[in-house]
Every structure is written in structure tokens, then in C-alpha cells.
Amino acid sequence: MLGAYLMHEATYALFRPLRLFAKGTRAVFDDTENPFARTPYGTAVIGFCDMLERITRRYGKPAFNITSTEINGQKISVRERIVWQKPFCSLLHFSRGRKDDKFDHPKMLIVAPLSSHYATLLRHTVECLLPTHDIYITDWIDSRTIPVSEGPFDLDDYIDYIIEILHLLGPNIHVLAVCQPAVPVAAATALMEAQNDPCHPASMILIGGPVDASKSPTEVNKFVHSRGVPWFQANCVMHVPFTYAGSMREVIPGFFQLSGFMAMNLERHVESHWTMFTHLLEGSGDSAEKQIAFYDEYLAVMDLPAEYFLQTVQCVFVDYALARGTMKHRDIPVDLKKISRTALMTIEGERDDISGIGQTYAAQDLCSSIPKHLKRDYLQLGVGHYGLFSGSRFKNEIVPQIVDFTSMVTRHLLKKE
């Protein structure tokens, strides 16, 4: 399906003159020498132009822009750097302070979802955990920028990447998986423990993930399960146009996924954009700032490898393979009962409309060989899916739970030594 992708690109190009007109008009009415500047009329024109430019814009990959954190009341500089890289993923390290600064904090690998959004969707997750952990995060790469010569990428490759990163970072690391990565992280840990791999994680923290998507199925779960792989293969897989480095790679386009997410909560998004528009017309920039920041992030999307997406649909949402004990990684069975030394924490949200209550908790029963004192479950009241890793309740209520858990695991490791 190359035509649909080309049509999307053509539509974007078609709106380019309108977008340039909006930017030019805004500049004219923002000029202090213009007599209409700072008047109600001028402010309204600026607000209208801002909104017109936003709805016709292509949103590129956002930056983390984390330059500092606070540790023990002291402001510490933060430097972002790539420490490992493969065609489909980079590993970022948020290095804190100077070379001679020493913080006795455990390493934490945050595995970001390989979904339509970039890893920067977890910016607040990183910010909140930086004061207490040495943070690394997977930064997945937009598939439309990856040449076909680099080969395909599927769920098996995803698990291989996680295992390779864990070998790079060494033993006693805490792994935090948000949403979709809960399954590959649990699978990677089970495979490593089955082989007595010394680099298995000290703990895995699974947040809002579909470990068993058959429990409390959400509308998303029901939709994916009822359609199955053939429907997605026929209706969602497209080829990257010739204008990108990944030309002719089979992908699930980011804009296609975004339209699905927006349609799920269309009324809320329309209301939010109308409120933003009203604030811009009134010149209330501060009132619109948070909504603008959210949508700058939310509307920035990337393409997914088709083979990864389809294998995930089959394994996680159709077969429930991990939960039913039928999942295999390159013909090797994945058995969560093999996990006995890695501590487990599951976190769910009361109002999660992506992964229903019980889907992540399922790991508690499936990982039956982990001692009870190394297991924890936490249900956060009053939050939906995004509130599990971002926002005030994440910072004030969930983060303390995570810090307490990793501290407990660290003490347990020290006792063993």
C-alpha cells in the first residue's frame, strides 16, 4: 500500500503554502511597529495563525532537553549521550554531574515502548527518576529512516536487543518497562535466567503492560483481538515512499496509528483543541502552554516495522502466548517460571483504558518462582494510562513506590554478598 502513504505526503505538501502564509501573517501582526499589534484584533489574528500553523505542521522528533536534576538539594548538570547503537535503536545515558561526582545510585534501564510515539513521551519518567537512579533509556528509531538493506526487525529482534543491552550494562540493573515492553522484557529476563546468565536484571518493574491481554480487555484489546493479523496486514501495512531513506520498507505508518488513537478519544481531543484555540485567541499564552507542550509530544509520531507490529499482535493480543506458556523466542520456549532471582514489581492504573486492571498483575502469578518478599504490586487510583508514567500523581505517588522497591532489592543484593 504505497498509494495511501503517498497521498498523505501529498496532502502535507499541499498545505505547505497555507502554513507559510500563516507564519508570515503572524510575523506581521507580532511586529511592534504594526498599529494592530497588541490590540484585541491583532491578538486574535496571531492566535488564529498559531492554530492554523499547528494543524498543518509536521511534528518532528522531540528532544529530551534534560540539562539538570536535583540530588540532595543540589543542582546537578545532566548530559545526554548515546552509549550503544543498532539500526533500530539507540541507548541513551543521562550522565549526571562531573567525572569526579560519585552518586551511590543503582542503574536503571527504562525500556520505552516501540509504538507510534518517540521515547521522549517518557521525558517526565526520566526526570522524576534521575535524582535516585543512574538512568539509561531505549530510543527507538523511526523505521522510515532505516534503509531496507538493514533487514527486518521483529519481536524476536526486540528481545535480542534487550538482552544485548543488559550484557552491556552488567549485572544488578533495574529494568523498568512501560506498556508494550512488559512482554519482551519479561521474556528476555526468563530466557536469561533459564541460562543462568549473570547479567539478568536485579528487578523488573512492569508498568501498564499487556502481560495477559485477555484479562479485563479494553476496547483497544478487543479491537486488535477481533481483527487479527490478516486484517492489519491488509489494511495497515504500507511501503515507505521514495523520499525517505527507508524507501519501500514495510511499515505501520505513525500517522495511521495516531489517527486511531485520536479517534478513540475524539470528543476529548476536539474539546482540548477548542480550549487551546480559545486561549490563543484571547492571547492567554500561559493557559495554552501545557496543552501545546502535550500535543507537540503527542502529535510527533514515527513508523513501526511491519513485521514487529504483526508479530506482537499475534503473540500478545491474539494468542496471549506469554500468559498461556506458548511463547517462543527463535524456537526456544519462554517460561516465566524460570525467573527466580529477579525481583518483580507490577504497577497498574485504576482508569487505564489501554491495559486493563489485571493485565500487568498477571506477571505476579506467572512468575511463580520469585520469592514473595521480592514481589510487589501497586494499583494507582485515579489515573489512566499516561498517568502511570507522567504527571503529578506519577511524581508524588508512584515514584516513591518505585524508589522504595529498588532500594529494597539493593539491600537484598548486599545481604547476599
Task: Give your account of this protein's structure.
By secondary structure, this protein is an alpha/beta fold. It has 2 domains: 2-58 and 254-302, no CATH class; 68-221 and 305-416, 3-Layer(aba) Sandwich (Rossmann fold). Helices cover 44% and strands 17% of the residues. The chain has 14 helices and 14 strands. The strands form 3 sheets. It has a 9-stranded mixed β-sheet with strand order 1-2-3-5-4-6-7-13-14, sandwiched between helices. Helix 2 runs antiparallel to helix 3 (40-55) and helix 7 (219-235) packs antiparallel against helix 11 (306-318). The chain is globular.
CATH architecture of the largest domain: 3-Layer(aba) Sandwich
| The CATH H-level homologous superfamily of the largest domain | Alpha/Beta hydrolase fold, catalytic domain
Helicity, in percent? Answer: 40-55%
Name of the CATH class of the largest domain: Alpha Beta
Task: Walk across the major sheet and give the strand order.
Answer: 1-2-3-5-4-6-7-13-14
Structural class: alpha/beta
Number of domains: 2
On the 0-100 scale, what is the average pLDDT? 86
Number of helices: 14
What is the N-to-C order of secondary-structure elements (H for helix, E for strand)? HHHEEEEHEHEHEHEEHHHEHHEEEHEH
Any low-confidence stretches, pLDDT <50, length ≥5?
Answer: none
- Describe the global form: globular
Largest sheet: 9 strands, mixed
From the alpha carbons, calculate the radius of gyration and give it in angstroms: 23 Å
CATH topology of the largest domain: Rossmann fold
Number of strands: 14
Assembly status? single chain
Distance between the termini: 57 Å
